[in-house]
Amino acid sequence: MNPRDEMDMLLDSQLGFAQEMLSKHGEFYPFAAHVNFEGELALVSGTTGEEKPLSDDVIDVLYAGLCRQAEAGEIRAAAVCADVLVEPPGGSGKTDAIRVDIEHSHSDPVRVFLPYEKNRRSGLILGELFAARGNARVFSRSES
Predict the structure, then answer these.
(1) How far apart are the first and last CA of the chain?
(2) Nearest in space to 77 (alpha carbons), one of 54, 108, 104
(3) pTM of the model
(4) Average pLDDT for consecutive 10-residue bins of the chain (144 residues)?
(5) Minimal CA–CA distance to 100: which of 19, 24, 1, 36?
(6) Which residues contact 46 (CB under 8 A, 6 or more apart)?
(7) Cα→Cα distances 42→26, 68, 89, 105, Å
(8) What is the pLDDT of residue 90?
(9) Which residues contact 6 (CB under 8 A, 6 or more apart)?
(10) How far is Cα 134 from Cα 124, in angstroms, rounded to an integer?
């Protein structure tokens, strides 16, 4: 599988699970996924030991684990998903969104957003997906 296909696989898995959690629970804690060198995808959760941790603390725990796996040569792609507020391009204010930060050892990182709103009658209403350049936290570009 090429890097783009693996990044798409990570995005699809992250968005799917986040949407499921939003539909069932109305929210979700950050979570992650990675692709190993056999091309297998695995979802990853993180805990801080707190009953109700801050999302940023969970994200830090997730990245710490992914970095350890990358340094050990166990994974070649990773993604971290969080529930955030974002201003969409051309938007008129901040909105809830699913954010997925995706990295691959052989590609530039990308940050993808899927705005959404929760509606009592019709459930989860999804907006237009948009992306921006991401920041490398798991794989430094010098490794590729």
Answers:
(1) 16
(2) 104
(3) 0.92
(4) 93 97 93 96 90 92 96 96 93 91 96 93 90 93 45
(5) 19
(6) 30, 31, 32, 58, 59, 61, 62, 65
(7) 23, 15, 32, 17
(8) 84
(9) 35, 39, 76, 77, 104
(10) 26
